[in-house]
Please model this.
Amino acid sequence: MSESSWTQRHRPVVGMDVLRLPLLGGLLSGRYGRLSLQLLLGVGALALVIDGFVGPQLAARNLATVAPWVHLRGFAVLALLLAGNLFCMGCPFTLPRTLAKRLSRRGLRFPQRLRNKWLAIFSLFALFFAYEYLDLWASPWLTAWLIVGYFAASFLLEALFAESAFCKYVCPLGSFNMVYSTLSPTRIAVKSPSVCASCVGHECVNGSYAPQPTVRLDEIAIDGGDATRQLRVEHGPAGALGCGTELFAPQMRGNMDCTMCLDCVRACPHDNVSLFTRAPGAELSRADSWPRRWDLSLLVIALAFMGLSNAFGMIPPYYALQERLALDLGLSSEFLALLLIFGIGNLLLPLFAAVAAASLGRRLTRFSKRDSLRDTVAAFAPAFVPVGFGIWFAHYSFHLLVGPGLIVPVMQEFLGGVGDWQRWSFSLDANLIGLIQLLVLIAGFLWSLRLAQKTALRLYRRKALLGLLPWALVFLFMMLAAWQVFTLPMEMRGTLELFG
Ligand code: SF4
Ligand code: SF4
Model:
């Protein structure tokens, strides 16, 4: 590709460079910036594991249950909305990864058949199933094992494979964060595409580690013109890692698969990549942001439906449904009943909704010959992000706002003191929580509708309304179903013993 066509295709970004902000910029992009954050959260994870194994096995009094199931999830969705994928950025599970990554310099490639999002859909399904079936929210001991399992799986996959297979293909938390970070107001991008066009080593993705020190001279274009300057590039044993999820900075169009680790920033020898602000969700309204793949589309759509079923598992009709399944179908096994409910709600329903809406839209607009079913579903899949996020946000903020101060007495007791439960066991007004939930559900619905409208206009032009209609009905169903769920009494998991 010629330099000019490269420059045209990879336009420079226009947002504010976050890493140029005083203090914060230096802290984030510095060699030990992320490591400090990870170490902090790593110590936190260790505390959860210790309390989970040896602390009181009462969910509301144990760090292992209160911190992740009440607080962390609430803060994670808030961070996604206001800043970006901060959870993955500080993820302690990737701490042993750096060591594992060094070990696997020449590691295997992750199997071609698994280099997609099917495993991520499966692991999300498995996590939500285990959460419900094993009552993870009520068991500090099991939650501690889950954390240990996470560290082990992350280390093993990183040691075995050359890329960060765990983050990109397996981790359910990472998949959740990556999908919803597409709404975030920040993204990684290059400052000058012309510099990338003349870059030789592409260290942002390849890294700059070398067993023996090497020096290279790059002829880098100045401001896209013909003039160049020579830049010295050094590689060595202390070199930086390239992008673990194998994203190539100048070709990135959004946040999907980005863990916000900033390795690319540290690795680029030309200081040409950074974290920029952008319009929230900018990538969702662009046609070329995501590849048109069934696995990716269904991950996004299924995750939105999983938000519904996850909340449904906490209200009385769920238990009534289990009873009916036992009485009418003889499904007395809770395992099988849950498998049936989640199998339908989390996998079959989203698949059916997507295929039915796409088929109906193509038929109504008579565009079925031009666009394949897969391409139609892929075109509308990004529109599921806001409605899905609204449901998850309404759910997780409920738990957070019901007991925002609980972490304090739990921490006091973990440190050997006396928990000041009287002072910290307050809750936000139930009506206010309900109002917040309603507002985020409506906002998510309207945002999804707007995105789907843009897609329908792009695909069907004058017949856009007909093409939009089936998708709008799906979003409406999701929003109303979620509202119905949130208006019913919910189990106050992790806080029940204190407020019940
Ligand atoms: S290493 Fe830097 S200059 Fe080279 S391609 Fe990556 S972002 Fe561009
Ligand atoms: S190295 Fe990759 S995952 Fe990390 S911030 Fe850069 S693009 Fe994102």
The mean pLDDT is 89. The radius of gyration is 24 Å.
